[in-house]
């Protein structure tokens, strides 16, 4: 059985050669990878969103495809198209860029809702349907989508159904002064990504994914997870709260964080650390709260602070004794 903590350290060390000083962001990416979930990276241009996706694909020796979304894109530009072969007298499927393993959906909010909808089946069911024929996607399959939170002209807000399919939302942010100086030094002669080599095999990744599923999560933690989601639905500041998929995502992310830290059980601190990135993008802030300049992240933070943290032992051994 693969050691998930060692697996995470190897991938993180590889990513740190390109992405400088963003340890928490890299941990979120690893959590998304181990949960087989998708990540929405919301940040300004030039902070390394594309490099993060490319570095991840190189470190895992996975097929990397980039989709640059624009308003004139069609769904077939994403999924692919069937073309008639004159010699064979039949239609042949030409796969689109979504058929890959690590997919960068760059500036996803620039595409029309119809084109954005082409990703829904792929993200949830790991398959695409073109002309009535279903094509399974390769494993692993992960979408890292980016959007600029500042520029709104010519963009289309992501529908709630699509936002709910992202395991978590994260931001890279600007590097500090010392890290930015190091970035300049590292890229003086060549970009570090050019020398990046695979550090794990796809087989090891799939083994790590299965290992994470076996991390013990006590009934007390499960109740805590569900209570946080329920409170988002009951909050006066929220128009639409987190769905059951949000609860499931928070529990799975907690299992991945525990495994990356070398534990085989989930702690309340794991859930607290992940509540905002996992639940923040799944809720819609009410108009009244928006007038008070309340963000979805702040609302989730307040809910976490107001919800009593469970106590006791959370290991599988303690559960057997009881």
Topology:
Blueprint: H1 4-15, H2 23-34, E1 38-42, H3 49-60, E2 64-68, H4 75-79, E3 80-85, E4 90-95, E5 102-106, H5 113-116, H6 118-125, E6 127-130, E7 133-136, E8 142-147, H7 160-163, E9 166-170, H8 177-186, H9 202-213, H10 219-234, E10 238-240, H11 244-260, H12 268-279, E11 284-285, H13 287-291, H14 296-306, H15 316-321
Parallel strand pairs: 1-8, 1-9, 2-5, 5-8
Antiparallel strand pairs: 3-4, 6-7, 10-11
Helix pairs in contact: 1-2, 2-11, 10-11, 10-12, 11-12, 12-14
Query: Which regions are unreliable across 5 or more consecutive residues at pLDDT < 50?
Result: none
Number of domains: 2
Which second-level CATH architecture of the largest domain applies? 3-Layer(aba) Sandwich
Whole-number mean pLDDT: 89
Q: Report the biggest beta sheet as strand number plus sense, adding barrel if it closes.
A: 5 strands, parallel
Q: In CATH, what is the class of the largest domain?
A: Alpha Beta
Which strand order does the major sheet show?
2-5-8-1-9
Q: N-to-C terminal Cα separation, in Å?
A: 28 Å
CATH topology of the largest domain: Rossmann fold
Number of strands: 11
| Percent range for β-strand residues | 15-25%
**Fraction of residues in helices?**
40-55%
Please state the structural category. Answer: alpha/beta
Put simply, the count of helices is: 15
Q: Indicate the radius of gyration in whole angstroms.
A: 21 Å
- Principal-axes geometry comes out as globular
| CATH homologous superfamily title of the largest domain | P-loop containing nucleotide triphosphate hydrolases
Output the helix-strand order. HHEHEHEEEHHEEEHEHHHEHHEHHH
């Amino acid at each position: 059985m693969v050691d998930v903590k060692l697996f995470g350290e190897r991938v993180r060390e590889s990513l740190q050669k390109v992405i400088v000083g963003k340890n928490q962001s890299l941990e979120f990416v690893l959590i998304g990878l181990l949960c087989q979930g998708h990540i929405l990276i919301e940040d300004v241009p030039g902070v390394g969103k594309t490099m993060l996706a490319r570095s991840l694909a190189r470190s895992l020796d996975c097929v990397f495809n980039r989709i640059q979304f624009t308003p004139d894109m069609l769904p077939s530009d994403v999924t692919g198209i069937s073309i008639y072969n004159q010699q064979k007298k039949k239609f042949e499927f030409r796969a689109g860029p979504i058929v890959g393993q690590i997919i960068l959906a760059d500036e996803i909010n620039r595409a029309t809702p119809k084109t954005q909808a082409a990703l829904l089946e792929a993200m949830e069911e790991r398959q695409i349907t073109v002309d009535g024929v279903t094509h399974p996607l390769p494993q692993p399959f992960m979408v890292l989508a980016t959007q600029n939170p500042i520029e709104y002209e010519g963009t289309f807000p992501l529908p709630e159904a699509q936002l709910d399919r992202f395991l978590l939302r994260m931001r890279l942010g600007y590097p500090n002064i010392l890290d930015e100086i190091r970035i300049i030094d590292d890229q003086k002669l060549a970009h570090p990504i050019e020398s990046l080599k695979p550090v794990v095999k796809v087989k090891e990744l799939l083994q790590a994914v299965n290992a994470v599923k076996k991390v013990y999560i006590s009934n007390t933690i499960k109740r805590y997870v569900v209570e946080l989601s329920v409170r988002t639905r009951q909050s006066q500041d929220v128009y639409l709260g987190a769905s059951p998929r949000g609860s499931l995502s928070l529990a799975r992310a907690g299992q991945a964080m525990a495994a990356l830290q070398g534990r085989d059980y989930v702690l309340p601190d794991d859930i607290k650390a992940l509540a905002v990135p996992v639940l923040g993008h799944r809720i819609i802030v009410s108009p009244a709260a928006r007038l008070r300049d309340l963000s979805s992240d702040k609302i989730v933070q307040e809910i976490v602070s107001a919800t009593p943290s469970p106590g006791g032992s959370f290991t599988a051994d303690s559960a057997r004794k009881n």
